[in-house]
Amino acid sequence: MTVKKVPKPAVWLVLFAFLAEAVVIPVRDVKVSAAGAEPIVPAASALTAFGAVSSTDAVRFDLIKHEMRINLSGGEASLDGKAVKAATPIKRNDRLYVPLRALGESGAVSSVAWNSAKRQVRVVSRREELNFRIGSTRVYDGQGKALPAENFTIPAPLLIGGTAYVPVCSLTLFGLTAGAENGQLFWRWSEKKAQVLQPYWETGEDEAVFTVLYAKELYAPGAGSSIGSGAWNSSRNIVGKDIYLDGSLYNRIQLSVPLEPGINPVAISSIGMAAAGIRIRRNVSDPSVIPVNITEDGKEFLTLESPASGYLKLKSGDSFTISGKVINPPNLAIGKLTVTIQRYVPDAEDVRKDFTTVSTKEIPVKNGTFSGSVTLPRSGSYRICVNGLTYTTFPGHGPASVTWANLSAEVAE
């Protein structure tokens, strides 16, 4: 297995920042165990004439294509081949205009709203919010500021009979393809969706191996989970190509993700899509064989003497000691270490938020040695990080710590 380590915690913050413009479909019929702690995985089997969702598929990424067509002569319209009602386009000064109401009703944009005071139409797409003012060739952002004229100048929108119209050429601002052919106006767009097929499972292995089915036109997905001082990228291997399923072609990729003892939230993503989340519990029969994870940064400065195990089994109110030695870097004396204690509370929307910080503790460093006690008063799953140096990630985000060591703990009542 080849695992690539990204060394700084800031990377985990920005790793998924580009993931947007997509919808994550929550898993249906997910049951919860009697303890209320974990979901039980439903069966995943969706057979088609030429392909099937595999039992190893944890997530499916779809690219759903849409097309709206309206007869220029009026009377007929279709959405994805099905007859619908829509206002008729108009032509002025050899330019074709589309009724914004029809654009909104097609689902190509999220919403369309009319502001009578400003004589302005507000259009929210999956990309951004834009505003069009009747009679104005300028386009305005969500705050009412005119966008640069060299890139955002259009033929002036019209208001006729209480209906607002924009030129067809402006539809490209929303990421649509639009035009006219065979006496019809059309616009096309695609929708990216992620469906979680297996939200949770358990394993006794130190890595999880699973597959992801994704539309051929999409980028090959990867997986990541927060470990140590940053994020791990999964190893990837395409194991199937041109799989015909539900009228579209898919590829299948196998991902391998290293696991910590206990619960592991894993985010799976493809470029240009929101991350889909799964959770994997690694069961460990003998916690004493699990070492404390010393990160690459920590190996330069830290020797940890206690605890001896990187996976602690405790009871509510139990304490444990964190102790060891620090090698001061050149020209910098380290006077303290900060211990961050995170508790597992599943987030309904984003698995990357499952572990939330519940407390921090500073341990003084004197003459290169340190020792401090940590108490976990509540039951649950925990991650404990020993942080050393701090640095500034981005303006306005404040300082971030470099994690030198981390361990897991399960606390029973």
TrEMBL record:
Copper amine oxidase-like N-terminal domain residues are: 79-171
Q: InterPro entries attached here?
A: Cu_amine_oxidase-like_N
UniProt name for this protein = Copper amine oxidase-like N-terminal domain-containing protein
